[in-house]
Amino acid sequence: MSDDVATPAQVLSTNIFDSAAEAIEAIGAADVLGLGVRVSNRLVQDEESDDTLVEEWIVELLTTVPTVDEE
């Protein structure tokens, strides 16, 4: 995460999705509600196979949209 965020926002919830499409839907809903988001993805071991990694998308809903100090 960048150190240039001027106004930290509180995390309301952390949601984990199996696909980017689901994450995008959650981001759109947050936008309609005027909430901020923080998005990341990671690889985790598949629950059904020890040899396979699957991608998860993490969408954190924030109380406000974070602002960045332009200096």
Q: Determine the strand fraction and express it as a percent band.
A: over 45%
Report helical residue fraction. Answer: 10-25%
The low-pLDDT segments are: none
The largest pleated sheet is described as: 3 strands, antiparallel
The helix/strand series, from N terminus to C terminus, equals: EEHEEE
Radius of gyration: 15 Å
Provide the structure class.
alpha+beta
The number of distinct structural domains comes to 1
Write down the overall geometry: elongated
Strand order of the largest sheet: 2-4-3
Number of helices, where a helix is a run of at least 4 consecutive DSSP H or I residues: 1
Q: Based on DSSP secondary structure assignment, what is the total number of beta strands?
A: 5
Distance between the termini: 17 Å
Mean pLDDT: 89
What's the short story on this structure?
This protein is 20% helix and 45% strand.
Primary descriptors:
single chain; 71 residues; alpha+beta; 3-stranded antiparallel sheet; 20% helix; elongated
Walk me through what this model shows:
There is one protein chain. The chain has 71 residues and is of the alpha+beta class. It has one domain (8-64). The protein is 20% helix and 45% strand. The chain has one helix and five strands. The strands form two sheets. The chain has a three-stranded antiparallel sheet with strand order 2-4-3, with helices on one face. It has a two-stranded antiparallel sheet with strand order 1-5. Strand 3 and strand 4 form a beta hairpin. The longest helix is centred in the middle third of the chain and has 14 residues, at 20-33. The model has no long low-confidence stretch (mean pLDDT 89).
